[in-house]
Amino acid sequence: MNHFQELGMVDHLEPWQRGTRSLANNKGMCGGVRGVGTGGVVSSSFCLLYRLHTLKPTKNQIQNTLNHIDSPYIRGIGFMYLRYTLDPKKLWKWFSRYLKDDEPIDVRAGGGNEMTIGQLVRHFLENIEWYDTLFPRIPVPIQKEVRQQLTEYDKKNQQNQKIDKNVINNINVKGFRTRSRSPCKNSRRHYIH
User: Fold this and answer.
1) Which single residue of 22, 65, 71, 191 could bond 78 by disulfide (Cβ 3.0 to 4.6 Å)?
2) Is the pLDDT confidence value at 122 over 80?
3) What pLDDT score was predicted for residue 89?
4) Mean pLDDT of the chain
5) Neighbouring residues of 37: CB distance < 8 A, sequence distance ≥ 6
6) How many angstroms from the chain centroid is the CA of residue 183?
7) Distance CA 141, CA 163 (A)
8) Helices 117-126 and 140-174 meet at what angle, rounded to 10?
9) What is one term from the GO cellular component aspect held by the record (predicted)?
10) Do 79 and 91 touch, CB atoms closer than 8 A?
11) Which residues, other chains included, contact 173 with Cβ-Cβ below 8 Å and sequence gap of 6+?
């Protein structure tokens, strides 16, 4: 199967295919083991993520992946690739412009965990875990800086939402109409009395 056929098969961003990974038998010293030691069939999304890693894409190719219009899963794989490979100092620069992206994506195998691309990006910035896999650790000073930037972003976004609500409320209070009730001058009938 070539990677174009595999792109069409991606319907989640979990590392394992649904129902192929059993955690019930992990006992004793293996109780907290992550990764391939616990078994399971690797998902198409993580196979493509690995393939992307072996291809060493250019900056332009990554940007095309992040802005892909056909599938949010291709975009999600691009964000995961960046989270695994990018220098932590550059994460905010790459991810910040996508925080408002409201394209929906269901990241869980079998469905049930729908979020937006913006929420996915935020999760990647704030957390180290992704469905029992670990992203590379972000150094503490950089993580503090990212959290501060997220807080500033949230404050700015809340202020913009308040401004939008005030504008909408003012329009509703003033009784703003989108069209006139009177007919156009050209369509008026002139009666001769």
Assistant:
1) 65
2) yes
3) 93
4) 73
5) 30
6) 48
7) 33
8) 150
9) spliceosomal complex
10) no
11) none
* Pair of tokens at residue 100: 């408002």
Span 81-96, average pLDDT: 91
* pLDDT value of position 147: 93
Amino acid at 46: F
Residue with tokens 């098969």: 9
- Cα 57 from Cα 49, distance rounded (Å): 11
* Residue 134 dihedral angles phi and psi, to the nearest 5°: -120, 130
- Cα-based angle 146, 147, 153 (whole degrees, multiple of 5): 90
pTM greater than the 0.90 cutoff: no
Amino acid at 80: M
Q: Kindly report, residue by residue over 127-164, the tens digit of the pLDDT.
A: 888 777 888 899 999 999 999 999 999 888 877 665 54
